[in-house]
Amino acid sequence: MSTSAVVVGAGIAGLASAVSLARVGWQITVLERAAEAGEIGAGFAMSRNAVAAFRGLGFGDDDVAALGYATWAGGTFDWRGRPILTVPGSPEVRDAVGLIGVHRRRVHAALLGRAVALGVHVVPRSTVTDLDPGVADGAPAVVGGRAADLVVGADGIRSAVRGVVFPRIAPVYSGYSSWRAVVPGVFGGEALTQFWGPHAEYGILPTTPAGGPDETYWYGYVRMPERTRLGGPDGELAAAKARAAGWAAPVQEVLDATDPATLLRHDVHHLPGGAPSYTSGRVVLVGDAAHGTVPTMGQGAATALEDGLCVGLLVGAPVAAGGRLAPALAGFDAARRPRCRGLARASVASGRFGAHLGVGQGLRNALMRLTPTGAVVRGAEAAMGWTPPQAAPPVR
Ligand SMILES: Cc1cc2nc3c(=O)[nH]c(=O)nc-3n(C[C@H](O)[C@H](O)[C@H](O)COP(=O)(O)OP(=O)(O)OC[C@H]3O[C@@H](n4cnc5c(N)ncnc54)[C@H](O)[C@@H]3O)c2cc1C
């Protein structure tokens, strides 16, 4: 029997879900609000769990190399550039915090290309406003006027899908806004470097893909009232520079090299606690729609990729093999919710001690300088040591 799913949202979570479901034989339609299923974004640190999920979707070494620059999280510095916690040169430690510095556009294009090649039908300019979630082993779901065996809510932190099934869950402003840009050239070192000052963090990450021109991603994550207007692109860059006045040389250099027209800024919202369940009726929530969090551990896109892969392995595969949907959805929720909740909680805690900290910088920095390397490796393993599960067996 052919099974069909409607995926709402063609971001990283939605496209990963579409690829994973299509790989196990589902018919997939993706409804995307934007005129083009593209990704504006800038860069991000694709941690090794994200790379494991990406590979789990069928991508190989060359595909990974084409996304960006293989490197590691090189450490944290204070705003003047003095080391707080640096990662020593040993290959084991570098592997533990290994990552690929990527441009979002390339990750998105790879997922979209694979989805289309697998026969996924992507419908742009298609905003979902109505949903009947159906009953897991009963009535079909109806979304955007289409009946479906499964609806994947991948429509981001302001998810309309989540709004129907869990109307009381709403995003909260983190108190922080983030500038992001990708600039040509090499700035900072070879690794991801992060600089912490009172209520602010700037980060620099090489994202040059294999055989491509040199490219660097930077972000500034600073405390700011919600919906602050800074007077267009030039005003935005001037404000990003003013906020970083006197900071370490690599921060100044990468800001000076930025074309204001390429600079993005977004207020950062999160869902404290996330959705109470990641499933309801025939709906499964993935990515920011389920667990949007603050970016202080760089795990949002990573868990979006993990979720997408798991929709195929834990829901798509057992149902395609003749199993019932309800136990498959329960298995997805049991596998994903504790992990994503734990990471979201850890991200908030890490923000409190890191970019969100105001007074107490000196004490925090002194404590961090005492952190043994083993603790860095164990912390990285807990967050990024994730590997894809086996496809779940059918429950009839
Ligand atoms: C400053 C910052 C830095 C970050 N850095 C990192 C990092 O280094 N590493 C990392 O792993 N993560 C990082 N993240 C997190 C990451 O960007 C997000 O968690 C991830 O992109 C979420 O993907 P998504 O597909 O769930 O949602 P989105 O990217 O928001 O995609 C949702 C899609 O749904 C569409 N849509 C919305 N509503 C509807 C509707 N009603 N109908 C149809 N379509 C709809 C939207 O147009 C969009 O295409 C960062 C986030 C921020 C803010």
Helix content: 25-40%
Shape: globular
State Rg. 21 Å
Instruction: Give the CATH superfamily of the domain at 4-71 and 102-169 and 272-349.
Output: FAD/NAD(P)-binding domain
Strand content: 15-25%
Total number of strands? 18
The low-pLDDT segments are none
Distance between the termini: 14 Å
What bound compounds does this protein have? flavin-adenine dinucleotide
Main sheet: strands, sense, barrel = 9 strands, mixed
Structure, described:
By secondary structure, the protein is an alpha/beta fold. The chain has a domain of 214 residues: FAD/NAD(P)-binding domain, CATH 3.50.50.60. It is built from 13 helices and 18 strands. The strands form three sheets. Strands 3, 4, 5, 6, 12, 13, 14, 15 and 16 form a nine-stranded mixed beta sheet that branches. Strands 7-2-1-11-18-17 form a six-stranded mixed beta sheet. It has a three-stranded antiparallel beta sheet with strand order 8-9-10, with no helix packed on it. The model has no long low-confidence stretch (mean pLDDT 96). The site of flavin-adenine dinucleotide (FAD) has 36 residues, from helix 1, strand 3, strand 12, strand 15 and strand 16.
